Amino acid sequence: MISVEEALEKILSFVEVLDPEEKPILGCLGQVLVEDVYADIDIPPWDNSAMDGYAIKAEDTYGANKLSPRFIPVVGEIAAGSIADKELKPGTAIRIMTGAPLPQGADAVVQFEDTDELTRQSLHPLSQIGILREAKKGLNVRRRGEDIAKGTLVLRKGTILRPAEIGVLASLGHSTASVIRRPIVSVLATGDELIEPGQPKLNGKIYNSNTYTIAAEVLRYGGIPEILGIGRDSVESLNRKIDESLTSDMLITCGGVSLGDYDIVKDVLAKRGQIALWTICMKPGKPSAFGVIRQGRKRLPHLGLPGNPVSAMITFEQFARPAILKMMGKENLAKPTVQAIMDDAVENTDGRRIFARVVLNLIQDTKVGEEYHACLVGPQGSGILTSMAKANGLAIIPENIPGVKPGDKVLVQMLDW
Ligand code: AMP
Ligand code: MG
Question: Averaged over 149-175, what is the pLDDT?
Answer without folding.
Answer: 98
